[in-house]
UniProtKB/TrEMBL annotation, chain A:
High-level lineage: Bacteria, Pseudomonadati, Pseudomonadota, Alphaproteobacteria, Rhodobacterales
An MF annotation (GO) of this entry: sarcosine oxidase activity
BP GO annotations: tetrahydrofolate metabolic process
Protein name: Sarcosine oxidase subunit delta
Origin species: Roseobacter insulae
UniProtKB/TrEMBL annotation, chain B:
NCBIfam families: soxA (TIGR01372)
Keywords carried by this UniProt record: Oxidoreductase
Record-given protein name: Sarcosine oxidase subunit alpha family protein
Coiled-coil boundaries: none
Species for this entry: Roseobacter insulae
Lineage: Bacteria, Pseudomonadati, Pseudomonadota, Alphaproteobacteria, Rhodobacterales
Pfam families, A to Z: FAD_oxidored (PF12831), Fer2_4 (PF13510), GCV_T (PF01571), GCV_T_C (PF08669), SO_alpha_A3 (PF17806)
GO molecular function, one term: sarcosine oxidase activity
Domain SoxA A3: 495-580
Residues in Aminomethyltransferase C-terminal domain copies: 884-970
Domain GCVT N-terminal: 595-864
One example of a Gene Ontology biological process annotation: tetrahydrofolate metabolic process
Length: 90, 978
């Protein structure tokens, strides 16, 4: 499997650490309530098809990356820095 | 028997080798199979289940029968295909799965019991009593059935892993692959051509085809020579592409040295390649399939294409009187090639009524089939059944052909399913099955040489265009373009056993029986009969078995479907895939700067994650580790001890928002920390459980150094990056791991300051370096850092210098400590000291404990948000009846405590339902003179003073304990601050 780090280019997936669903981008406010937090920490969709998840180019530049891919075809549809996705200065 | 003037072997270079301790002679270029056939040795193996005598069936990597063991001792390799293994001088080959010898195999008695041993026999027979299966039935059955065996000894052979990248990967170098390489190579594309054979050319080396008026093999050699001259083309032989994976990744196994008598210096036996290709052309050719008829498995019966390969490529006539049997025109070539080479052809049997046979010099039987065979250890004759009834034909070799199956395997590795093509009675790849890969040539159903050349050229042109390049004009050479005529013939009806899967001994009857017993799905049939489940993965037999199943269940072949082809295409040794990871290579080893000194001092090194740390430093006269450990604890409690703590993670954090960032990742506040001070911090996961702990020092307004536990250093670094990049991107802060840049040593004990003042350039006192102070220091002019922090609970410091001074500093500290009645201490003493003080490690913060559980609930600041705060406040996370941290002291006659033991009420049975907690850390405290422990007990802090049972079911130890506070030594911290 190959992933394209937006900073370093196309790399083997062994350079990346996989975290999980990109839902982690949207941290609720402390007052958001139990359900919102339960959703954020525990509940994940299990899509057959397009999904977005978080990878870190740990063996490279360290950037956290949002990878859009298809769980059925294994096609990688796109990668983007989690930073800009969340407004970071990278 | 060799045939004169034929073959691509070097007759001027004879090669001696052994088979079953008998010496044989072959030529350079021979495989074990071709050399044995040349010596008249037809019997090469015994079958898996019935121990039937078997000879070679094919001439390639799909071989099911001729499996042999190569080499001896630890390096012996079982199940090597005699058709793939090249001979070299001194090669030691043995037959397998036969006792006492290949010719006289006692287990061939199994063959007489065949009426009972059909599909499902074992499942149905050995059912009772249940316990007998594991102890008796299975071991006996396994011993009777089987392949070769490993030596059971450590394999010292060298293997490698390697990576390759290219724009175009061409898999297979037959006519289609070579033509594609020529077109793409001339267009300047970065091409990698991979072929599993020792010479490129594929079937061109095995046939008498003519290309542009020269022999096909000569054309192939000329193309290879041209490709070798191109800087943009790489050629790999003896390399099999074994799998297709996501995003243009392919696996390949290169047999680097198995054909050599002596290995080049440092060369591996095999190399496992990962190839990344922007585009790929599959030109893997086709595999010929047998016809199932009674006793079609005798040595001497082989594939027609294999007979031509042995004749044309190796100059070997596989028999003196050869019969040919087929259902297609391609088989006819076999008879003409043999006759031209001067080999007697006993007859050409074609199942088709209207078969047009050209060529003379042999009897022709159309509308006829082979219905049986004779010959115990080798073929002596066949029974031909035609319109005029049965008659016997004497023959010592039968060349059979049921047609060709395109080698579609790789196109199915990513869940693709092949498409049935009625006109060739075979499956072809479904386009798009592997993104970026196209099939060309015989693997795509093009069965004439001209069609293969054209398909290879067209595929390459499309790829070049796709990659943005330009092709120059490459004219297609002239080649045969005969139409492929075939009428399906899978199994000849009749009595007796007709083999489908030769390697797993599956017959037509077995497949029919599976259908009768309602294993109608092809996947069920496969598992019930074990069809296609041997090391050859049914390359010869799957399609025929499928056809028999389709017939037995009254369905068409496409409707019946295929089983799933999975990687690897041919067997890959685990040693090659895991190359470099055996023994010490299994995981990286991290050494501290004091490693060599510690080993010199006799310290046994213990693993801490990837690190190696000293357990203890034994002294003369000490006989147990406890003696050394107790002594080292005493150093720290009474004088001064020195310990390398460099393995703790150290993260340098800088930036205007560094303090605010730390407030967010730690439960407690760091923005209020003064410059020159250190604070203990607790980190939670977002789910509210403790992630890690450690101290963080503020070296400047915008500069902090965080320490993490040894085990969690990597996780914490990743976590910080995540929190910053994803959750707090507005913060201007950066992190760098500096774990390996600093050598850091704990100097602990009442005389620690005395020791330091001996070596620091500027002395310290209690006002300049109070408890939790930090700052810059220097030792012998070398700038470093000094922290007054304590894990042992004593008056202690940690001193850090750049790593290159680590060893010298350690030696110096230990020497000074010894002069002050102290010395070095290791992990054992460090652990005792921290348990005495009630300090936690990952034994306690193991992922399921909360700040509340370890008594740190108040460390979660109420004034700010932090990671994990919201979830840590959930009702269940602060329930007083949770398992919470306490100390344990033995109070009964048994004084032993063990980590992992469980806690119960006195008088309650020690069963799961009564579980009240568990012990996490134990130590013998030399300071207190008895064992102590840390445990998590339900409602723990409310039970101080209670006596409970601690039961270790594994070691059968039961101890009565008193629940106490987790701090055993100096609970008010006077020694630490002193």
């Amino acid at each position: 499997m190959r992933l394209t780090c937006p900073l370093c280019g196309e790399r083997d997936r062994r350079e990346f650490y996989y975290q999980g669903d990109a839902v982690s981008l949207n941290r609720p406010s402390p007052e958001a309530g139990v359900d919102a937090w339960d959703d954020y920490v525990h509940l994940r969709d299990n899509p057959a098809g397009e999904t977005r998840d978080m990878w870190q180019h740990e063996g490279g530049c360290g950037a956290w990356i949002v990878v859009t891919r298809n769980t059925v075809t294994h096609e990688v549809l796109g990668t983007a820095l989690a930073g800009p996705a969340a407004g970071a200065r990278i | 028997m060799r045939v004169d003037d034929k073959g691509l072997i070097d007759r001027s270079r004879p090669v001696r080798f052994q088979f079953d301790t008998i010496g044989y002679s072959g030529f350079e270029g021979d495989t074990v199979a071709s050399a044995l056939l040349a010596n008249g040795q037809r019997l090469m193996g015994r079958s898996f289940k019935y121990h039937r005598p078997r000879g070679v069936l094919t001439a390639g990597s799909e071989e099911p029968n001729a499996l042999v063991t190569v080499g001896r001792g630890a390096a012996q390799e079982p199940n090597v295909r005699a058709t793939v293994q090249e001979i070299h001088s001194g090669l030691d080959v043995r037959s397998q799965n036969a006792w006492p010898s290949l010719k006289t195999d006692v287990m061939s008695l199994n063959d007489l019991a065949w009426p009972f041993l059909g599909a499902g026999f074992y499942y149905k027979t050995f059912m009772w009593p249940k316990a007998f299966w594991e102890k008796l039935y299975e071991p006996v059955i396994r011993r009777a059935a089987g392949l070769g065996a490993l030596s059971g000894r450590h394999n010292r052979d060298k293997y490698e892993r390697a990576y390759a990248f290219c724009d175009l990967l061409i898999i297979g170098a037959g006519p289609a692959g070579l033509m594609a390489a020529l077109v793409a190579g001339r267009a300047g594309v970065d091409v990698l051509v991979v072929d599993e054979d020792r010479v490129m050319g594929g079937r061109l080396n095995a046939e008498t085809y003519v290309i542009d008026a020269e022999p096909g093999s000569a054309w192939a050699a000329a193309v290879v020579a041209e490709l070798q001259g191109m800087a943009n083309v790489r050629l790999m032989t003896r390399t099999t592409v074994t799998g297709a994976y996501d995003q243009g990744t392919y696996a390949a196994l290169e047999r680097v040295s198995s054909h050599l008598p002596e290995r080049a210096d440092g060369a591996p036996l095999e190399t496992f390649w990962r190839i990344v290709a922007r585009r790929a052309i599959l030109a893997s050719g086709a595999l010929e399939r047998p016809v199932a008829f009674a006793d079609n498995d005798r040595p001497g019966i082989m594939m027609a294409g294999a007979v031509r390969a042995y004749l044309n490529r190796w100059g070997v006539a596989p028999g003196q009187r050869v019969a040919v049997f087929g259902n297609n025109d391609d088989a006819h070539r076999t008879a003409t090639d043999l006759v031209e080479a001067g080999v007697e052809v006993a007859g050409l049997i074609d199942s088709r009524p209207g078969a047009q046979v050209t060529g003379t010099g042999f009897p022709v039987y159309t509308s006829s089939v082979v219905a049986g065979s004779t010959g115990r250890h080798g073929l002596t004759g066949i029974a031909v059944q035609g319109p005029n009834g049965h008659h016997r034909v004497e023959a010592d070799c039968l060349a059979m052909s049921g047609g060709w199956n395109p080698t579609v395997h790789l196109t199915c590795h990513m869940n693709g399913r092949p498409t049935w093509r009625e006109d060739i009675a075979g499956f072809v790849p479904t386009p798009g099955s592997v993104p970026g890969l196209v099939a060309a040539g015989a693997c795509n159903g093009d069965f004439s040489t001209a069609a293969c050349l054209a398909a290879g050229s067209a595929a390459a042109k499309a790829v070049v265009k796709d990659l943005g390049g330009k092709t120059t004009r490459v004219s297609l050479p002239d080649a045969e373009d005969k139409a492929y005529q075939i009428a399906p013939l899978w199994a000849v009806p009749g009595k007796g056993r007709a083999w489908l899967d030769f390697q797993n001994d599956v017959t037509v009857k077995d497949v029919k029986q599976a259908a009768t017993e309602n294993f109608r799905s092809v996947e069920h049939m496969k598992r019930y009969t074990t069809q296609g489940m041997a090391t050859d993965q049914g390359k010869n037999s799957n399609v025929a078995a499928l056809a028999v199943l389709a017939d037995a269940t009254g369905r068409a072949i496409p409707e019946t479907g295929t089983t799933t082809f999975r990687p690897p295409y041919t067997p890959v040794s685990i040693a090659a895939m895991g190359a470099g990871a055996q023994g010490a290579g299994f995981a990286p080893q991290r050494y501290t700067t004091s490693h060599a000194v510690s080993v010199e001092m006799g310290a046994p090194m213990i693993e801490a994650g990837l690190w190696y740390r000293p357990g203890y430093f034994p002294r003369k006269g000490e006989t147990t580790w406890r003696q050394a450990c107790d002594r080292e604890v005493e150093y720290v409690r009474e004088a001064v001890g020195v310990c390398d703590v460099s393995t703790l993670g150290k993260i340098d954090i800088q930036g205007p928002d560094a303090a605010a960032f730390l407030d967010f990742v730690y439960t407690n506040t760091f923005s209020t920390l003064k410059v020159g001070r250190v604070r203990y911090g607790l980190m939670l996961r977002e789910d509210g459980h403790v992630m890690d702990d450690g101290t963080t020092a503020r070296l400047g307004e915008q500069h902090f150094v965080m320490t993490t536990t040894t085990a969690a250093a990597g996780n914490v670094m990743r976590h910080l990056e995540f929190v910053h990049q994803v959750l707090r991107p507005e913060f201007d802060v950066r992190f760098t791991s500096v774990t390996e840049q600093w050598a850091q040593f704990a100097v602990a004990g009442p005389r620690s300051r005395e020791l330091l003042n001996d070596i620091l350039d500027a002395p310290i006192d209690k006002d300049s370096w109070p408890f939790m102070a930090c700052g810059e220091t220097s030792v012998a002019g070398i700038a470093g850092r000094l922290f007054r922090i304590s894990f042992s609970g004593e008056h202690a410091y940690e001193v850090a210098l750049p790593s290159r001074y680590g060893e010298s500093l350690f030696r110096l500290l230990v020497k000074r400590a010894e002069s002050l009645s102290g010395g070095a201490y290791g992990m054992e003493a460090l652990n005792v000291l921290r348990i005495e003080k009630g300090h936690i490690t990952h034994a306690e913060i193991h992922g399921r404990t909360t700040a509340f559980d370890i008594g740190f609930a108040r460390m979660i600041s109420t004034k700010k948000d932090c990671i994990g705060k919201t979830m840590a406040a959930r009702e269940g996370m602060v329930d007083p009846m949770r398992e919470r941290l306490v100390g344990l002291k033995p109070v009964g006659p048994v004084k032993q405590l063990t980590a992992g033991a469980h806690v119960f009420e006195r008088g309650a049975a020690a069963i799961r339902e009564n579980d009240r907690g568990y012990v996490t850390s134990v130590a013998f405290s030399p300071t207190l003179g008895h064992s102590i422990g840390l445990a998590f007990v339900r409602g723990g802090p409310e039970r101080l003073g209670d006596v409970m049972r601690v039961v270790d079911h594994l070691r059968d130890i039961e101890t009565d304990v008193e629940i106490c506070a987790p701090v055993f030594v100096d609970p008010d911290g006077g020694r630490t601050r002193g």
